[in-house]
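S2.1 Query sequence (CTLH domain-containing protein)
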Amino acid sequence: MSLFWFVIRQLAEIEEQMATSKKVITREEWEKRLNDVKIRKEDMNKLVMNFLVTEGYVEAAEKFQMESGTEPDIDLATITDRMAVKKAVQSGNVEDAIEKVNDLNPEQSFLEELERTVSLLAFEDVSNCPVGELLDISQRLKTASEVNAAILTSQSHEKDPKLPSLLKMLIWAQNQLDEKAAYPRINDLSNATLEDPTV
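Output structure tokens follow.
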């Protein structure tokens, strides 16, 4: 059972127990309940591999595969190709990006943003170009992310890693639980340290 579902279950239990006032759950009681939650190592490994693959950390994914025995759900060689496209878009090398995208997926009609970017090639003075904003670094980063997501989707892979979504669900669940109880919260997600409840 995931930590998210644990928090949801606690929320339901507390709603039944307390109609008007907040229940206080001690650190000892909370940790005991957390220890009862069983998360399979295999599931955690899949979550880590999903993050590494989706975000394009090919070397880390290869090492993690060797160390954990977790097989990625995509050929790791495609990560390198996908990251080359992303880098070409970020650096403004439109022709190279289009060539690499065509190598990965010869259908093209891949992404409207990339097609708009191609129109920059028609203008000698891009400051007068109607789509000149595409040269802005923030737009390049946005386009690179969209191209990355489109490539992942075309390869039948999720376009977003699961881990950030799970962390958002944890934050949402804690916010819901805050209305009903005082309990040890995780405020710093990077360390996952429980902080004593404030009464």
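Residues 182 and 198 are 6 Å apart (CA to CA). The chain has nine helices and four strands.
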